[in-house]
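Sorry, explain these tokens?

***
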Amino acid sequence: MSYKNIFIFTNGYTGCKVLQKLKQLRQTPFIATSEQTNLRKKSSGDILSFSNDFQIYEINGECYSKAKDILPNADLIICIDWKKDYFENDKASCPVYYMQPSLLPKYRGYGAVSEQFIRGVVYSGVTIYEYNGVIDGGDIIYQQEIKVENYFKVSDLMDRQAELTAEFIASLYKGETYSRKKQQEEYAFYLPKIRKNSKKIDFNADALSVYNFIRAYTFPFSGAVFYFKGEEYKIMDASIESWSGIEGRPGEIVTINDYGIVAACGEGSILIKEVEYNGQIIKSLMMNIYEGEILI
């Protein structure tokens, strides 16, 4: 079956990357994004930058019943970075697909990208499933594996997920069909909601775990945090300096070099290259931190 009127409900970074790719592929589905008065104003604003390329509708982002009357008819709705229970109280008149940035049934819920980095997942992916009232629990329509390379940051994985999603959407216009399969519930688990305190770095962990945690919150996320003299800093770029060995107390600055600050972990150390402080991006070398001082 080919689809003529596909509607994409989307916000944020991934949504923008999907639209960029669809523009390259010369596919122009209808787009719905959260109203500018919504809490997701910043994300919505990014989507609105594509107004010259797509027909975009600003809608209520909390529930479908408050938005459906202003939308044209669709053959299919695809939700990308969209509220997961949006259709809970009012079903759409066409099938609804959701994109989840993981290999379902694993990593259901919000925060799947960061959680996979934290856990050191080597093979992630993208899943398109049909919404059935169970969050991230519907039949799988499309699924593609992605290898998470050691150098990957969050944006690298999200870019690839967006590219595959856009290619899937383009294939629907061409009439390509997919056989659905049920999820294996015995492997399913849901993720807890990420809270601000969850982004604090634990330097007691080994260097690899600290590095994975840091890159889990890199752009487009707000950054993993540490505290120095009562002030909050967000790490925007880092690498592993040494994999093993005890170099100092966890969080201790063991050396400062031309590339940044080397901080000891429970085992091994990391090189902090770039941080954000009070909204400003600064190179770690420019921070007023000296050897022997402690980051917490």
Q: What stands out?
A: The chain is about 20% helix and 25% strand.
